Amino acid sequence: MFNAFFKARPRLRAALFGLAVCSPAFVVGISQAFAQEAAGPVAYSSDRLSVEVIGSGPDVILIPGLASSRDVWRTEAGRLAPMHRVHLVQLAGFAGEPWHHGDGPFVAPVVEALATYIDAAGLDHPAVIGHSMGGLSALMLAQQYPASVGRVMSVDSLPFFSAMYGPQVTAENARPFAEQAAVGILNADDAGFRAGQAQTAIGLVRDPTTRIAMVDWSMASDRHAMAAAIRDVMTTDARPGLGATTTPVWAVYAADADGGTPAAMADALWSGEYAALPGVTLIRVDDSRHFIMADQPDRLAAIIDRFLDQ
After folding, report:
1. In sequence order, which residues have a C-beta less than 8 Å from that of residue 73 and are 6 or more positions away?
2. What share of the chain is helix, strand, coil (3-state, %, to 5)?
3. Buried b (16+ CB within 10 A) or exposed e, 166-191
4. Structural domains in the chain (count)
5. Burial readout 108-127 (b: 16 or more C-beta within 10 A, e: otherwise)
6. For residue 123, how many C-alpha atoms fall within 13 Å in the half-sphere facing its CB?
7. The domain spanning residue 13 has which CATH number?
8. Distance between terminal CA atoms of the chain?
9. Cis check: omega of the bond before 105, within 30 degrees of 0
């Protein structure tokens, strides 16, 4: 059923599978030493996530995507820190973080862990911003724990990622392909895995430095965590809960006429998939691939400022 999609839309395919095979390690414009210096103390840790806190002011939670380090948000966190208390999430199993849960589940426990952290830290309706799978987790957090979240921004994230394959796809008939993707992650040898990640990175981000960093971060991730995550991402459908969602949501998405997703295709996909969400704010960022924070950091920063000031 999906073969025609694979042939016709290779970059949308890359955007989905790149979540698992190319971890988004955005350390652009700063050296590793600067990143280490800028890092704050880990204020909270569980078997599902850890949280680093920097800055002071209204609370903002930043969630990375599949196989990502929290450094995907490092530059933006540093920019926000003078005015906000920023909570940089690191998901277990990714970018060297320990993993103790075999092949799953992944997404639902992360959502529960985020709610636990908000309660344990005494946060008052924080803003939650998530990239890719992190955006899906943020949306589910708002659906399941509406009293805990002030507002949500999803960055190039859909409520059902397998909708990229077409309107006929459901979580159930995506399941065999999700399992195939998970098995591929587990069975690939290191050399083949690295080569695949490097190739897929080209479809996910323009910046060559970020492409290299993405491969390094994902090679440090636990394969079982990645397999569990891609299986969950491909079969998790948050669309049925959109109509009852009361938390304000902004959905920021990328379009790129030169090698990425064309604007018309992106508009149709995001407007269609978020149609049932009352009052959703949809914002397209042109000349960017999946990692908007790498390809268009200034534009995303301006959007985040407007989001936090609303």
Report:
1. 26, 62, 64, 88, 129, 131, 293
2. 50, 15, 35
3. eeebeeeebeebbeebbebbeebeee
4. 1
5. ebbbebbbbbbeebebeebb
6. 29
7. 3.40.50.1820
8. 43
9. yes
Write out the two tokens for 261: 């997703």
pLDDT at 275: 97
**Rounded Cα gap, residues 49 and 239, in angstroms:** 25
Q: In one letter, which amino acid is 87?
A: H
Calculate the dihedral angle through the C-alpha atoms of 63, 65, 67, 73, rounding to the nearest 10 degrees: -50
Longest pairwise C-alpha distance within the chain: 50
Distances (CA, A) of 253 to 15, 142, 188, 297: 12, 19, 31, 13
Cα–Cα dist 211/227, whole Å: 21
Structural domain containing residue 34: 3-309
pLDDT digits (tens, 9 = 90+) for 252-301: 999 999 888 999 999 999 999 999 999 999 999 999 999 999 999 999 99
